[in-house]
Amino acid sequence: MGKKLYIVWGSPPVNAVIMTAKALNVELELHEVDFANKEYLSHWYLKINPSHTVPALDDDGFILWDSHAILVYLAETYGKGSTLFSTEPKERYKILQMLNFDCGIVTKKMANCIWPLFYEDQTSIDPKQLEYLKDVHVVLERILKTTKYVAGERFTIADISIFSSLTIADMILPIQEDECPNLKKWFLDYKNSDLYKAGEKSIETTRLGLKFKLGNVIE
Ligand SMILES: N[C@@H](CCC(=O)N[C@@H](CS)C(=O)NCC(=O)O)C(=O)O
């Protein structure tokens, strides 16, 4: 049996897993969950993920949900020789720190801006929420002023996870080069990479969704 990943197109956490699998050369069988018909709340899916979110991974019967846990699992299980995670304890804690920053802060602030558009039929983004999201740029700029990547001097799954979130955040709050030059460079380097291409279908899905909701404010 292969590795099945439950997904919805356009989801940043799903995309982080797709991009990480690409980086590790891991083949995933993608299984789309029908969000329009609330399949994520169905009996069969709740058995896979009681927390009713995507992504969820089924690796030959071993089930794991939450993208950040899945990234660590894939890197540790299938990333022998890869430097995307680390065996050195202090490096691992730094990577986990930044995965938690993505999970608890970046994605939460981003969701507070975007979810009301899709789930509460709002037609614009609350400027206060955009202001809170802006702090993510400020924090990352502070970090990237001192290290090349978000968790140190090596590119890791923490970069992929945060990048995946920022590809979507950037559509509603572009990174300003004059205010955050280091973050902008980190972001653009990644945007020109093959990993970005691996995630393009999902990114484009969100872009079209946002454009539908917000019109020409979105490029
Ligand atoms: N921390 C989770 C967040 C996953 C998440 O919120 N996924 C959204 C799609 S982007 C979802 O499945 N939402 C459905 C729900 O919350 O019921 C992760 O990283 O996997």
Overall description:
- The protein is an alpha+beta fold and 219 residues long.
- It has two domains: 3-78, Glutaredoxin (3-Layer(aba) Sandwich); 89-217, Glutathione S-transferase Yfyf (Class Pi), Chain A, domain 2, CATH 1.20.1050.10.
- Helix content is 59%, strand content 8%.
- The chain has helices spanning 12-24, 43-48, 67-78, 89-119, 127-146, 157-172, 181-191, 194-198, 200-214; strands spanning 3-7, 29-32, 56-59, 62-65.
- The protein has a four-stranded mixed sheet, with helices on one face.
- The chain is globular.
- The model has no long low-confidence stretch (mean pLDDT 96).
- The chain binds glutathione.
- Residues 11, 13, 40, 52-55, 66-68, 103 line the site of glutathione (GSH).
- Residues 11, 13, 40, 52-55, 66-68, 103 line the site of glutathione.
- It comes from Ceutorhynchus assimilis.
- Residues 88-212 form the GST C-terminal domain.
- One of its GO terms (molecular function) is glutathione transferase activity.
- This is Glutathione S-transferase.
CATH class of the largest domain, please?
Mainly Alpha
Low-confidence blocks of residues: none
CATH fold category name of the largest domain: Glutathione S-transferase Yfyf (Class Pi), Chain A, domain 2
Q: Mean of the pLDDT scores? A: 96
Q: Output the strand order for the largest sheet.
A: 2-1-3-4
Largest sheet: 4 strands, mixed
CATH architecture of the largest domain, by name, is Up-down Bundle
Q: What is the succession of H and E elements?
A: EHEHEEHHHHHHH
Distance between the termini: 41 Å
**Residue share in helix:** 55-70%
Number of strands: 4
Rg from Cα = 17 Å
What does the overall shape look like? globular
Number of domains: 2
SS-based structural class? alpha+beta
